[in-house]
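Whiteboard transcription, Tuesday session. T.W. wrote the structure tokens on the left side:
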């Protein structure tokens, strides 16, 4: 029980403490600019991870469903820059690919 309580406290502090500190201190402009890239990097890592099928001892294989669904999704991201449009195009693209193939 103490382990669960300790984990809960550490998790809560690691999520709440930055908000408390950032209310009192201002970050330098360079740090704010650096942190602006974090969401893009996370989404890119998730996207690249879904493009490949990995098996231990073998080279990664391409997941063609996700690759073909990514093409209109990336195009819509470049054109619209709207998260809602990107998500809808991605889901519709994958549904169409799975229905057709």
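and on the right, the sequence the group agreed on:
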């Amino acid at each position: 029980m103490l382990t669960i309580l300790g984990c809960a406290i550490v998790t809560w502090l690691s999520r709440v403490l930055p908000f408390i500190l950032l209310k009192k201190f201002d970050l330098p402009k360079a740090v704010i600019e650096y942190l602006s890239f974090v969401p893009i990097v996370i989404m890119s890592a998730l996207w690249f991870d879904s493009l490949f099928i990995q098996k231990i001892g073998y080279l990664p294989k391409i997941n063609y469903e996700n690759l073909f669904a990514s093409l209109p999704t990336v195009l819509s991201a470049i054109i619209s820059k709207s998260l809602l449009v990107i998500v809808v195009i991605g889901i519709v693209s994958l549904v169409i690919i799975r229905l057709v193939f």
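Someone added at the bottom: Residues 7 and 13 are 10 Å apart (CA to CA).
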